[in-house]
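pls design
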């Protein structure tokens, strides 16, 4: 790693000495698709930053029921809510595709935050965005009907993850159902209805949005 490079975003507020401090306390770990990055109820020890790949953030409840909270992509931190809130991870993370993660020692990172108020503000913004995203998801799950939830998921992958109206779901049908908080059978039925109504084209995991207007209306109206 180049001395003046940094494995995590500097937000243009880190000094050369602070960048070097992070470099000396960080290391890189590659994960294969399906690998567990960390598990719920295990101790927190490092700051994690996605260099490349996609990561599924999920929580396991009673009777091993799983709720997928969000999908994180490259250039995003993962686990911040747990790292700064608890000593144990409150959720799990796994790689949806081959993924590269940088680890930074949590003690070094906390010292950096104490020393650099500008960097702290940027991290607080990231923490707020993560919390608000989960908050919005819980509200939508309780207020939106299934077609609205499925439309929102399609838009989420189209607008936030892939930036394209043509993409492949990185999740299985079961995982998509967990993301929408529904059953696999209900998810498949709703996707088939969208296809029959020519709102989307669907071929296995490949999706093409044919009517962006209708998808947005369904997502908003729920």
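designed seq:
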């Amino acid at each position: 790693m180049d001395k003046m490079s940094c494995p995590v975003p500097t937000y243009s507020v880190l000094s050369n000495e602070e960048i070097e401090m992070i470099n000396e306390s960080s290391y890189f770990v590659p994960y294969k698709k399906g690998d567990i990055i960390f598990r719920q109820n295990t101790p927190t020890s490092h700051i994690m930053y996605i260099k490349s790949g996609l990561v599924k953030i999920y929580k396991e409840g009673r009777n091993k029921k799983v709720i997928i909270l969000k999908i994180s992509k490259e250039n995003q931190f993962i686990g911040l809510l747990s790292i700064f809130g608890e000593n144990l991870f409150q959720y799990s993370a796994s790689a949806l595709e081959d993924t590269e993660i940088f680890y930074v020692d949590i003690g070094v990172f906390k010292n950096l935050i104490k020393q650099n108020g500008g960097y702290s503000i940027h991290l607080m913004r990231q923490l707020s965005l993560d919390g608000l995203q989960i908050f919005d998801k819980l509200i939508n799950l309780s207020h939106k009907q299934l077609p609205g939830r499925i439309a929102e998921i399609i838009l989420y992958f189209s607008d936030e993850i892939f930036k394209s109206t043509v993409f492949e779901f990185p999740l299985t049908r079961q995982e998509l159902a967990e993301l929408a908080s529904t059953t696999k059978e209900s998810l498949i039925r709703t996707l088939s209805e969208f296809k029959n109504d020519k709102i989307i084209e669907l071929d296995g995991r490949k999706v093409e949005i044919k009517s962006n207007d209708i998808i947005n209306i369904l997502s908003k109206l729920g």
